[in-house]
Write a structure and sequence with these properties.
- The chain has 339 residues and is an alpha+beta fold.
- It folds into three domains: 84 residues, Uridine Diphospho-n-acetylenolpyruvylglucosamine Reductase, domain 2; 111 residues, Uridine Diphospho-n-acetylenolpyruvylglucosamine Reductase, domain 3 (2-Layer Sandwich), CATH 3.30.465; 122 residues, UDP-N-acetylenolpyruvoylglucosamine reductase, C-terminal domain (Uridine Diphospho-n-acetylenolpyruvylglucosamine Reductase, domain 1, Alpha-Beta Complex).
- Helices cover 27% and strands 27% of the residues.
- A five-stranded antiparallel β-sheet has the order 6-7-13-11-12.
- The longest helix has 19 residues.
- It is globular and about 60 Å long.
Length: 339
């Protein structure tokens, strides 16, 4: 029996696991692009997830775990292997401590805390994705990040379930230890909140969502910002000298500023477009492909590299692309046009 057929049969035998063959991953990502996974399996049970992961690894097939799919770019060919997803979404509170499972929607966690007068996550309002992904990438906005509230993270390390405290998670700007340890998978996070006025928190969150929805409408097929902002203190001196002081926010320079200087606004490759009002926003206007998106991202990186001699780093993750596919040096020699 071929490996994929055997893996599909064994995964289907695990209780509490939903298994699909040739599952279209485009329906699980916000960009709405990408081909199928040979096998897709999801569960809300930790024990079932561990067993499914064991089966996937024993099959010899490639395996990967996805969260909410917000920041994933899946290739047009899809993923040749087993795509796993942990979807448990329970959120509970005991006093000021809140425990959220990795599959919970981040906005649901924000709403949960705001309604209970628990302060500390309201600035994350409107950020798409799951709690697990937010911890993984240390999601944040308006000068705050989820790391400020994380007390413990419960995860599977490939051999057993463990817990790390906040210091052991090694959080920094859009980073955590989980990005370095690809065999680790987050199950839940315990957060320590502060008392606050629920009405004030509700107003703050609503205002942030309104601003975010103007830039990133919920119907827009995009991942929000494509590139990470940059820390001013870590920029080469010659580059930092070119940055206007008014652009710097909380010690960070928006990637959009560098992109705008490189002429990114309004660029397009087919139906994959850079917004004409935000240089760090790429969206699928309808019918675009993953190849077009990847090529457009590579072109933007190339232009910034040529203009500033530095590399932008993506917030998005690539699935199903061959390694080393990123573009090289010659910019402007592909079908990029201005809107």
């Amino acid at each position: 029996m071929p490996a994929a057929e055997e893996a599909l049969a064994r995964l289907s035998e695990i209780p509490n696991v939903t298994v699909l063959a040739n599952a279209p991953l485009a329906s699980y990502t916000r960009f709405g692009i990408g081909g199928p996974a040979d096998i897709y399996a999801e569960t809300a049970c930790e024990a079932a997830f561990v067993r499914a992961l064991e089966v996937a690894r024993a099959s010899g097939l490639s395996s990967m775990v996805m969260g909410g799919g917000t920041n994933l770019i899946v290739s047009d060919e899809g993923f040749r292997g087993v795509m796993l997803r942990f979807v448990a979404a329970r959120i509970e509170a005991e006093g000021r401590r809140v425990t959220a499972e990795a599959g919970a929607v981040l906005q649901d966690l924000v709403d949960f805390t705001v309604e209970r007068g628990l302060a500390g996550l309201e600035t994350l309002a409107g950020i798409p994705g799951s709690v697990g992904a937010a911890v993984y990438g240390n999601a944040g906005a308006y000068g705050h990040s989820i790391a400020e509230r994380v007390r413990h993270v419960r995860f599977f390390d490939g051999a057993g379930v463990r817990t790390l405290d906040a210091a052991e998670c090694r959080f920094r700007y859009r980073e955590s230890v989980f990005k370095s340890c690809k065999e680790w998978f987050i199950f839940s996070a315990e957060l320590e909140m502060e008392p606050g006025d629920s009405e004030l928190l509700r107003r703050t969150a609503a205002e942030i969502v309104e601003v975010r929805n103007r830039k990133f409408p919920v119907t827009m097929k995009c991942a929000g910002s494509i590139f990470k902002n940059l820390l001013l203190a870590e920029l080469p001196a010659a580059v930092a000298a070119r940055v206007p002081p008014a652009v710097v926010r909380e010690g960070k320079v928006p990637a959009a500023w560098f992109l705008e200087q490189a002429g990114a606004k309004g660029m397009r490759n087919g139906e994959m477009r850079v917004a004409d009002y935000h240089a760090n926003l790429i969206y699928n206007a309808g019918g675009a492909t993953a190849a077009q998106l990847r090529a457009l991202i590579d072109e933007l990186k190339c232009r910034v590299r040529n203009e500033f001699g530095m590399e932008l780093e993506e917030e998005v993750q690539y699935v199903g692309f061959p390694s080393g596919v990123a573009g090289g040096g010659d910019c402007g020699k592909s079908p990029y046009t201005s809107a």
